[in-house]
Design a protein that fits this description.
3-stranded antiparallel sheet; 5-stranded mixed sheet; D-Maltodextrin-Binding Protein, domain 2; BUG; 16% strand; 374 residues; 15 helices; 2 domains; alpha/beta
Length: 374
């Protein structure tokens, strides 16, 4: 009898344990479902993955945006930046794609160093930007400049120089790729010395005479190079331009007085540029500058969450205080949202197989870089 009671006791205990486990499971699932079914982000926290170390340009951009997100996203959620550096943004972007829940409470910022490896299918890339929904995007720009003594006789003379032009860069697979391709299109004989740790050191190399042709992004050019121009120590040659939604290279709106390389090419050679180098140049301008930074959410996040986030971005760009205070961070460019953003992404990240093949072979031939081993 006692044995029967003991057995019944243990059976009852097991049943109660199973019920408790079931209740706890339902509670966790229910909490998640409630979160997904909520109509706002009231009292919630959004994790904002920044795949760079703190203090860099993309991190500064992300941290500037966070209070405006909290202000304009319905429910005024707390937005917390999480830096995941490594692999020139690839490490953090991979983690976001593969490890972060697509519940609408995780967002990501990408930059040119995320975009170009993606379109080239670099072997270390384990993310697909097509699996993300864009929320807001921002352009940037770049200016190529040289020494006054080299520019005094005009672009045609500059293009005829052999073994006299030296460029200090970081890496041929980063933003330098656009500038290097501009030299390729214009048929300029430029020796690239790569391995510098940033655009700042590259500019210092120009100032110290280690190089005599350089580029800087819009904000860095305005901050650090325009004074060199005023002092007679530098001359701007061209802007890297912007690619519009029709795929045309246009002048940079921040430097409307400077020509694009297309205009220079026509002036020098009497015909429009064409061929794979030209197509590669336009493609990399689009992916690197016309959409320099994009903020995303998982495409398979709940639809209502995506709509709330997208509406928040629509509200954000209408905020006059954002427009005024973002001048330095966005370098004076207008942000993209909605259909305009989707169209720009389609233009920027759609690369033809021939153009992709040409860029990969160009990097292998000129810089001994195998995109399949990066």
């Amino acid at each position: 009898m006692n044995l029967l009671k003991i057995n019944l006791f243990y059976i009852l205990l097991l049943l109660m344990s199973a019920m408790l486990i079931g209740c706890n499971t339902m509670e966790a699932t229910g909490t998640e479902n409630d979160k997904n079914a909520s109509t706002s982000y009231d009292g919630e926290t959004i994790s904002f993955v920044v795949p760079f170390q703190a203090g860099g340009g993309t991190d500064v951009f992300a941290r500037f945006m966070t209070p405006y997100f909290a202000k304009h996203i319905e429910g005024e959620p707390r937005v917390q930046v999480e830096n995941i550096p490594g692999g020139a943004s690839i490490t953090g972007t991979n983690e976001y794609a593969n490890s972060r829940s697509p519940n609408g409470f995780n967002i990501l910022t990408s930059s040119a160093s995320s975009h170009v490896p993606f379109i080239l299918e670099q072997s270390s890339v384990d993310y697909d930007l097509d699996d993300f929904t864009p929320l807001i995007g921002a352009p940037s720009g770049g200016i190529v400049y040289t020494k006054p003594e080299l520019a005094k006789d005009g672009m045609e003379n500059l293009l005829s120089l052999e073994n006299e032009l030296y460029y200090a860069g970081i890496s041929p697979t980063g933003l330098d790729l656009v500038t290097l391709l501009s030299f390729e299109v214009l048929e300029m004989d430029v020796k690239a010395v790569l391995g510098y740790e940033g655009r700042g050191p590259s500019r210092v190399a120009f100032e110290q005479g280690e190089s005599n042709i350089d580029y800087q992004t819009t904000s860095a050019y305005k901050s650090n190079v325009e004074n060199l121009v005023e002092e007679g120590n530098a001359v701007p040659l061209y802007s890297l331009g912007q690619v519009d939604q029709d795929g045309n290279l246009i002048r940079d709106p921040q430097f409307p007085e400077l020509p694009t390389i297309e205009e220079i090419y026509i002036d020098i050679y009497g015909t429009e540029p064409s061929g794979e180098a030209w197509e590669a140049y336009k493609q990399t301008v689009a992916a690197s500058y016309s959409l320099n930074k994009v903020i995303w959410v998982h495409k398979n996040a709940p639809n209502h969450s995506k709509k709330i986030l997208q509406q928040g971005m629509e509200n954000l760009i209408e905020d006059t205080s954002f427009e005024e205070e973002s001048q330095d961070i966005l370098e004076g460019y207008d942000a993209f949202v909605g259909e305009e953003l989707n169209n720009q992404i389609e233009q920027s990240f759609s690369i033809s197989p021939d153009t992709k093949k040409w860029i990969i072979e160009y990097l292998q031939l000129h810089y001994d870089i195998d995109i399949n081993k990066l």
